[in-house]
Amino acid sequence: MTSTALNSCSGRTFVWPVRVYWEDTDAGGIVYYANYLKYMERARTEWLRALGCDQTAMRTRHRIQFVVARASVEFRRPARFDDRLEIDIRLQALRRVSIELAQHVRNAERELLCRAEVKIGCVDVESFRPRGIPLSLQQELEIEH
Amino acid sequence: MTSTALNSCSGRTFVWPVRVYWEDTDAGGIVYYANYLKYMERARTEWLRALGCDQTAMRTRHRIQFVVARASVEFRRPARFDDRLEIDIRLQALRRVSIELAQHVRNAERELLCRAEVKIGCVDVESFRPRGIPLSLQQELEIEH
Amino acid sequence: MTSTALNSCSGRTFVWPVRVYWEDTDAGGIVYYANYLKYMERARTEWLRALGCDQTAMRTRHRIQFVVARASVEFRRPARFDDRLEIDIRLQALRRVSIELAQHVRNAERELLCRAEVKIGCVDVESFRPRGIPLSLQQELEIEH
Amino acid sequence: MTSTALNSCSGRTFVWPVRVYWEDTDAGGIVYYANYLKYMERARTEWLRALGCDQTAMRTRHRIQFVVARASVEFRRPARFDDRLEIDIRLQALRRVSIELAQHVRNAERELLCRAEVKIGCVDVESFRPRGIPLSLQQELEIEH
Q1: Cα(A62)–Cα(A76) distance, rounded to whole angstroms?
Q2: Which of the four CATH numbers 3.30.200.20, 3.10.129.10, 1.10.468.10, 3.30.420.40 does domain D3-144 have?
Q3: Taking Cα atoms as reference points, which of D136, D117, D123 lies closest to residue D53?
Q4: What's the CA angle centered on B86, arms B14 and A35, to 5 degrees?
Q5: CB pair distance less than 8 Å for D22 and B28
Q6: Scanning every residue of chain B, which has its alpha carbon at the shortest distance from the alpha carbon of C66?
Q7: What residues of chain A lie within 8 A of the CB of C23, using their CB?
């Protein structure tokens, strides 16, 4: 699996490939709508990894984790079993305790299937109260932005 | 399982109970964010059933089905294993080929965990092009509205 | 939702109802095979609850949890969207650190869709090493047996 | 993504890599047991693809599809978020309407997490009655065997 970092007007776009398996589809013959959110989360996990962020260490050492605070998703065209999709991510806003991302899902023909705006918050693993994003990650995100 | 229809200022609210099982949670100790969309779809299916809509007949006889066109979800508080949740639905807008719904997820203490605005479109099962919502369902939805 | 406890030659059978939603199906038009294991786990959770076992307390107070050690599943007939299923459980063997269960999935016509033998082990939440099933649950299980 | 075909005493082993994401874990901190069956199905899909089998064409042109008839799974050790797993497949038996496979899930340290015996049947997409495996695939499978 490869990830691509492309330069664009401002900021960078991270891209992650996903294959559609039987588990992802429903009896309507297409990818079940909630499963696009799984794809988008996989891409965010790989993006964080590419930025040097170890989510397991965040949880066990710093006792913080990321949670999704808001997701607005538009479903444009269906994906089907065996389709090869690309999920992209672009950082839209960076704050002390949260980030906002734009994400797109495209098929092999580069058609837009799905677009989303996602707000991620950094919280305490016990209380779920807001906590600052680790400084090292803040610095990496500023470069992305 | 029981569904409750409560009168409110205008329109009615349908409520569907859901229990959180292991399958719904993630290693963060809470319900995985995409799974709230499953809960909301279960409630929509039961709401349609309560309105006399047989989705299997829609597909096989009329060759149409509902798809989610847009979902905007705010995640406020986490749910955990074994929690009893209530998912509600209220019709916000009714058009010839689509409907808009407001949905809330609350826990047993009536705390708001999650709120969503969801747009559902009626489409051809093959082409996925917009098709009119069946008249009998249109009439039921007008009463709801 | 109701659970039924029926007497039979030896031991008792616990039954839990499940409805098939879009999330459970795949593009083959039927319930995705791994999802029967989710249904069976829901039934086990409700069976444990009916026996007075609070799995959250087990984890937080006693630092133990149940894990599936083995599952042998035969898939006989497909279930489809909107089907009403019944999942049953019967205790087959009771040991100090594990239990064995027989589970069946039937549809509304009482046809057998799926049968399974499942071995559940009680383990430490950190080390995943075998630990004794709590005595209070052992006693309840002996009555079931 | 790469697949490896290793020679062994008799027959060949196909290997498919999988990464554990949040969606795969549960509040016990480990991969939810039913999700190993998803991993194993992904590997089978990629194995069939490597053998030249196009499952979409099978469904639409030949009106047949594969279904799981039996799965016996032993869960030995837990996998956790971010783990890199390898799923292998080896053909055990080849019949006119079914095949039997042995599958293993191992982590990056080559520890065995999970092993399974899986029987796959070829059926008509409507009636779900047994149908012969396509000859071209039969021939490929004989080479594997």
Answers
A1: 39
A2: 3.10.129.10
A3: D136
A4: 95
A5: yes
A6: B22
A7: 26, 32, 34
Please name the residue ranges forming H helices in chain D: 35-50, 55-61, 135-144
Q: How many whole angstroms separate alpha carbon B37 and alpha carbon B39?
A: 5
C-alpha to C-alpha distance for A130 and B93, rounded to whole angstroms: 35
Whether B26 is catalytic is yes
C57 phi-psi bin (left φ>0, alpha ψ -120 to 50, beta other): alpha
Residue A25: which of C27, C80, C81 has the nearest Cβ? C27
Which one, of B139, B140, B133, lies nearest residue B50 by Cα? B140
Q: Is the Cβ–Cβ distance between A117 and A108 less than 8 Å?
A: no
Place C62 in a pLDDT band, splitting at 50, 70 and 90: very high
Closest CA to A28 of C78, B42, B131, C80: C80
Question: Closest Cα partner for D74 from C67, C123, A24?
Answer: C67
What angle is formed at CA A109 by the lines to CA A105 and CA A115, rounded to 5 degrees?
20
- Per-residue model confidence as pLDDT tens digits over D80-126: 999 999 999 999 999 999 999 999 999 999 999 999 999 999 999 99
Q: Which residue of B has its CA nearest to C2?
A: B1
Structure tokens at D19: 């990464």
Query: For C62, how many CA atoms within 13 A lie in the half-sphere containing its CB?
Result: 19
- Please answer yes or no on whether A74 and B69 come within 8 Å at the CB atom: yes
Whether C1 and chain B come into contact, CB under 8 Å, resolves to yes
Q: Is the pLDDT of residue A6 over 70?
A: no
Distance between CA C66 and CA B45 in Å, rounded? Answer: 32
List the catalytic residue out of A24, A26, A54, A88: A26
